[in-house]
Structures are given as structure tokens and as C-alpha cells.
Amino acid sequence: MISLVHSSQYSKHQTENHPENPERLEVLMNSLRKEGLLEKIDVHQPSPANEEDILRVHTPEHLRNLKIFTENGGGYLDFDTYASPQSYEIAKLAAGGAIKASELILEEYDFAYSLARPPGHHATPNSAMGFCLINNMAVAIKYMMEKYSLEKFFILDIDAHYGNGIAEIFYHDPRVLYISIHQDPRTIFPGKGFIEETGSGEGEGFNMNIPMAPGSKTSDYVYVLKNILKEVCNQFKADFYYLDVGFDGHRKDHLSSLLLDDNFYQWIAGYMRKITPKMTLILEGGYTNHAMAQSNLKMIKMLMDEGIHERKWQLSSAHQLKNETKNIFKEIQNTFSSYFTL
């Protein structure tokens, strides 16, 4: 069974003429409605994360500054991150959505998907950035650690941009294995997420970056992920699984130079189903509405349909791998040979 966690209140995070705007979620929900899927999916309302939940991740100064900034009318926190007068409260609601979607997995649901905004994976302990105000994923994981005493968490982040905030928060923590596949950080925000950023101290080896060359297609992503995910998951043996969903790697999205198609999102949902029967999904990026809606539909249909199996990808002449893709996998093998057998 699959459930969605969503609130119409997310539209109150007003961002003017910004790529991350209320229309993103409206398009996703309308597409599900037109397909008749909302009639078949339980939709749950989130509750705001409280300050105790958020302070497990963020500094008191960050919360205080964000609250004061929004109470004073909001505006641009940096060159691309916007907050409106109600954004502080809505960011708490988005973090609460991630918590709710996580808790639903401990109930009767196999998959729970937090369709929320603002996104969160760039937010660091003391800073908003990259459209993100509060780190929804990190707040949920810290909450699950505290309340349910779960020990090991797996995250696959498929956003086109490296989730530097998630990585920073758990960089020293061996309980969280963070795998991010993203566009080469030499060519895209936030300029971090290189293979050699493997974690530190006890967390060394538990931060795995897969930086893909601009122009990488679905076949490139499938090749790398099929050679990594199953083996790493089998060895790590997580208690809880997350898929951090970003649709901005789609070939029609203007915020990256990746060339994924709709079918990638269907494939990754099916492949993760082979690895784990239960998983929480959290929405991050995606800024071209039609492409995002179609990709989201295919992903959800894969999670809903018990008869669907992983799509078999045959690399024809039209889907030849980039040489950079093979080289990236070899470099990951060499870098992580002390931690995982790949």
C-alpha cells in the first residue's frame, strides 16, 4: 500500500517568480487526480515539526533568524533562496510531512511519499540555501532515531544537485549511509559532491557521491546504480530506507544539464522495490511542470502496481554509455573498496 502526505497549506510558501513555486505541487496533485489515482491512495495531512524536532538538526540561531526574517516580511535570504512571511511555519509543516511519511512506514503502508515544499536537502545546520529552509529529511531521520530507536538509515538522493545539507549533517555518522547521484559539481550548484567526499571519522565510507557528466542519460544512471545499490544495501543492512526524489535531472528541466527521461523514475522505483519492501519518499527538486508530473505518475504507478517488475534495460546503439560513466564507476569501486565490495 502507498500513502501520500500533503497539505494545501504548502502554497502559502510564496516565492514570486521563482522556479520553486506553489504551482509545482498543484501540477503534481492535479495529474494524480486526473489519472484517478487519488481515489486509490490514502492522503494524510501533516502536522508541523516542533522546535525540539528541528533543533536535533539545526542551530537555535538558524531557527531564530529564519523566524525573525519571515516575521519582518521575508525576501531573499541569499541569491536564490526566498522566504515569504509565512514560510517559517510552512517549512516546519514540510519537515512534519517528512516525519509523518516516515511514521506511516511503521504502520500498514509499504510506501509513503511526502509531497511538500519548501524542499530541504541543501539546508545545513546553520543556514538556508538552494531553495531550502529546513532540512526535512534530516529532521525526519533524527526524529526516527530518537523516538523509535532505529539504528541504520539508507538514503538514495536522485536530485540533480548534491544534497550538501544532508551530507554535512550526517558526515560523521556511520548510522546513515547517504548515496547521492547528481550532476558533476564542477558544472552545477552547490559545487560539492565529489567522489573523494566519503565522510569523516566514524562516518568515513558512508557518504557516497556519484557525480555524473552533463549529458548523462537514463542508460548511464541505470548502469551505475545497478552496479552499486544492491551490493551496498546488502552489506549495510539498513533498518529504514529513504528515496530523496528530485525530478530536475529530467532532460526538459532547465536547472540541470542531465538528460534523464520519464522512464528513469519508473525504473528507480521498481529497482528500489527489489531491494526493500518498505520505503519513504521525500520530494526535493523538479522545475518543469509537465515533465515532473509525468515522471511522478510513472514512479507512483510503479509503487502501486504489485504486478509490475523492474523494466529491463537493453543498451542498444541508441543508448550507448558515456565513457565518463564507466570511469566514474571504476573510481567509485577504487575509492570505496575499503568499505564495500562492489
Explain what this protein looks like in three dimensions:
This protein is an alpha/beta fold and 342 residues long. It has one domain (2-335): Arginase, Chain A (3-Layer(aba) Sandwich). It has helices at 23-34, 51-54, 60-71, 87-105, 136-148, 164-169, 218-236, 262-275, 289-304, 323-335; strands at 2-5, 42-44, 75-76, 82-83, 111-114, 153-157, 176-183, 207-212, 240-245, 279-283. The strands form 2 sheets. Strands 2-1-5-10-9-6-7-8 form an 8-stranded parallel β-sheet, sandwiched between helices. The longest helix has 19 residues, at 87-105. The two termini are 32 Å apart. The mean pLDDT is 95.
CATH topology: Arginase, Chain A
Task: Work out the strand percent.
Answer: 5-15%
Number of strands: 10
Bulk shape: globular
The topology string of helices and strands comes to: EHEHHEEHEHEHEEHEHEHH
Q: Tags for this entry?
A:
342 residues; Arginase, Chain A; two-stranded antiparallel sheet; 10 strands; single chain; alpha/beta
List the helices and strands and how they pair.
Elements: E1 2-5, H1 23-34, E2 42-44, H2 51-54, H3 60-71, E3 75-76, E4 82-83, H4 87-105, E5 111-114, H5 136-148, E6 153-157, H6 164-169, E7 176-183, E8 207-212, H7 218-236, E9 240-245, H8 262-275, E10 279-283, H9 289-304, H10 323-335
Parallel strand pairs: 1-2, 1-5, 5-10, 6-7, 6-9, 7-8, 9-10
Antiparallel strand pairs: 3-4
Helix pairs in contact: 1-9, 4-5, 7-8, 7-10, 8-9
